[in-house]
Amino acid sequence: MKDQDFTLADEPFALFRTWLAEAEETEPCDPEAMAVATADSDGLPNVRMILLKGADERGFVFYTNCGSAKGSELTANPQAALLFYWKSLGRQIRVRGPVEPATEAEADAYFATRRRESRIGAWASEQSRPLESRAALEEAVDRYTVEFYGRDVTRPDYWRGFRVRPVEIEFWQNGEFRLHDRIVFRRRTLDDVWTKTRLNP
């Protein structure tokens, strides 16, 4: 797509896969990093950087502790926005849509691929909640290291996946003199066909 006009694309998922593959070749650190925006019970936005762990025509998947801020916010208000930005390519992709849980099987399969230390960390960390001290966290890690000694570290029930089901995906390419190229794909419902619109910079 580097040598082609991306605005000619007729659906968003193939274009996303192409851009992500190109970012994997050029971006020096975490090309799959994305900002995830949610909203709390007062409607106040919240955003943080996390890693994409799956993407196909069903949506964009990430995993978290459901007791974390984002987990709690997505449970109460299952909608989110994502932002991918690749400075090396001068590109960004914005995604918006409803959120649904990933399946238990998907969560188990991904959790099993994580390093053992990261799996223990998922048990030890009460993500987003107050922490007495760094020493307290390290003690929890030690405790679960002993508990799981000699056996597999299984997935905690509270550690789950979320899938953002897009109803809007916008592709942005940096242009000279701020005359950027932008196209947005939209659909009213998840069953509708995509419509494409070119936007002013």
Q: In a nutshell, what does this entry contain?
A:
By secondary structure, the protein is α+β, with helices and mostly antiparallel strands. The protein has helices at residues 12-26, 69-76, 104-113, 116-124, 134-147, and strands at 33-39, 45-51, 54-56, 59-65, 79-86, 91-101, 159-164, 168-173, 181-186, 195-199.
Fraction of helical residues: 25-40%
Radius of gyration: 19 Å
Shape: elongated
SSE order, one letter for each helix or strand: HEEEEHEEHHHEEEE
Question: What's the CATH architecture?
Answer: Roll
Report on the structure:
With 201 residues, this protein is an alpha+beta fold. The chain has one domain: Electron Transport, Fmn-binding Protein, Chain A (Pnp Oxidase, Chain A, Roll). The chain is built from 5 helices and 10 strands. Strands 1, 2, 3, 4, 5, 6, 7, 8, 9 and 10 form a 10-stranded antiparallel beta sheet that branches. α4 packs across α5. It is elongated, with a radius of gyration of 19 Å. The two termini are 20 Å apart. The model has no long low-confidence stretch (mean pLDDT 94).
